[in-house]
Amino acid sequence: MTAKSSPLFLGIDTGGTYTDAVLWSEAGGANGKVLAKAKALTTRHDLAVGISGAVDAVLQKAATDPAAIKLVSMSTTLATNALVEGQGGRVALVMIGFSEGDLARDGLKAALGTDPVVFCPGGHDVHGNAAKLDLSGLEAALPELGASVSGFAVCAYFATRNPAHELSARNLIRGITGLPVTASHELSAKLGGPRRALTTLLNARLISMIDRLVAATEGFLAARGIAAPLMVVRGDGALVSAAFARQRPIETILSGPAASLVGARHMTGLDNAVVSDIGGTTTDVAVLDRGRPRLDPEGATVGGFRTMVEAVAMRTFGLGGDSEVTLEDGALNPRILLGPRRLVPLALAGMMHGEAVTVELERQIRAANPSRMDGRLAVRTGVPERLAAGLTGAEAKLYELIGLTPLPVDRLLTSNAQNATLKRLVSRGLVHVAGFTPSDAAHVLGKQANWDAATARLGAELFARKRDGRGQAIAATPEAISERVLTTLTRLSAEVILETAFAEDGLDGAATVAHALVQRAVDAHPGIARLSVALDRPVIGLGASAPLHYAGLPPLVGHDCLVPEDTDVANALGAVVGQVRVSAEARVSQPQEGLFRVASGETVRDFLDEAAAIAAAETDVRAIAAGRARDAGTDSAEIEIASEFRVSTVEGQRMFIEAHVVAVASGRPRIAV
């Protein structure tokens, strides 16, 4: 069978800056063949624009009939970026059986921010026995909440042992508001209420974003006559159907990086490597061991929050081509600092808005003295107005002043308090700030040429005028400051790679040690004590800018750095070569001697015999896993069941404590006939 007659697979990756597309065929060798690839700018106000730009370019390059595409698979960094940047919709958290003091655990209060929370009596004990449920307070608050939030997160005490109270609250909320509701038992079977509540809160916050992405993609595919199933990459690298992902968007955190790991393994054939994927907003670093990515058994950590989402053991850093460039405060010789916030590069803003940007930058250059706000412009993202619900008076007033044409921040803001207000609008995803970034530095030096280099140079000139602790300009020319910025990005890339390696080895103080070692490596006078470090495996550099930023990595990490030919579309390629994989769990406990309670899915049943309870749990999880596999997009799932028992021995007698039964279903996604 030739590549032309073989089924075609379309991979899409929607990143913070670019949307990538790749057309792949299983024919053409052991690893198949990339027939065409393309990029387009991610358009956050209307994601379909960026998707259509990338996919249309791929179809044109390959001269392919869209009807020949039998599977579409998508990865995305939108959820990851949103958590790193503190973005997402305003949601209400409903806590059943918890107290206000529980908000202080596991970072829940910090994640909640100013979003509303409602406490209700209820919940269950460890064996699933219910306390008295009272939802009257929630019912009274729903009319007002329904008008000011985009969704709800519900978490009940020990809901993983009995979800009845979460189900009652979910039904009440849906009946009155019609808004999306995420219940904690749907996302995790693990104990630890506050962290489960945190995971549920983040899931609810991401629903509108992922829903817009899926809807935009489905609309585009229908318009092009592509009648193929749409899959989404989950954070552990597995594929799930778009409908599945819409309900559980939290599981798409680290989707893009997970897809890149699958793509890296596919492209290089390396079983052992450190994979570093640099994008516009983040750098994601993970480890390949014996051909598989390491998973984080404690749950993925993104944006400083430890979730209960099983995902690739990926460390995500706010470091990328579009990272904010700032100066260290209060130093005689201030260091260049990058990230964690993403800015719209000035080169991109100049390409999109022309004189509206350049006129303001030229005005700032003509000023006698530099200002802290030089080179910064604010512009609306263009998201639907309903997502601006719940703004404070100060936020709404500033938001009204900002339009779809960039405004210089030095003329927009009149006080320091307004700067904090602007940051809140950015965190809500309502406003973008444009400013000087490594991407601009690359344009100044002629190492990147896809946007407007003249605007980038204006931004570099403004940044070079900033003063050090002696009152002197920090750089003589735009080229000089641009070289410093790119050198800093390579050095920080080495630091995050080494930090990840140290953390995987269980070493404390990983960030501090990594910084010291890389600093010694680049310092002309390394000191009396000689220090060196080397990775035990090569680095695979991924991302469109990896050839530029990772060229100087080998001497800093002590090993080779391999950048594959299709590194710029590794995520999109990884999205189409993966498998569906889902799981289901049940727990069997003994609330009293001789009574065995099975909690599986949304049901709780009692048995008088241990063997019967275990058999029922295995039957349940097999059926649940099979159903989830179908929902996730495969008709050919293989199911494996594993049971783990906790027992004790008292006076020579075996005493049953608890059993944990897990079913894992996996298979290739279904394709269009």
Outline the secondary-structure elements.
Elements lengths: L7 E7 L3 E8 L7 E9 L5 H16 L6 E8 L1 H7 L6 E6 L11 H5 L4 E4 L15 H11 L4 E6 L7 H14 L3 E3 L9 H31 L6 E4 L5 E3 H6 L7 H14 L4 E6 L4 E7 L2 E2 L7 E2 L2 E2 L8 E3 L5 E5 L8 E7 L1 E2 H8 L1 H12 L10 E4 L12 H9 L5 E2 H4 L3 H12 L3 E5 L2 H7 L8 H12 L13 H27 L5 H13 L16 E4 L3 H4 L4 H4 L3 E2 L7 H7 L3 E13 L2 E6 L2 E5 L2 H23 L5 E13 L2 E15 L6
Parallel strand pairs: 1-4, 4-9, 5-6, 5-7, 7-8, 11-23, 19-22, 23-24
Antiparallel strand pairs: 1-2, 2-3, 9-10, 11-12, 12-13, 12-16, 14-15, 17-18, 20-21, 20-22, 25-26, 25-29, 26-27, 28-29
Helix pairs in contact: 1-6, 2-6, 4-5, 8-20, 9-10, 9-15, 10-15, 11-13, 14-15, 14-16, 15-16, 16-17
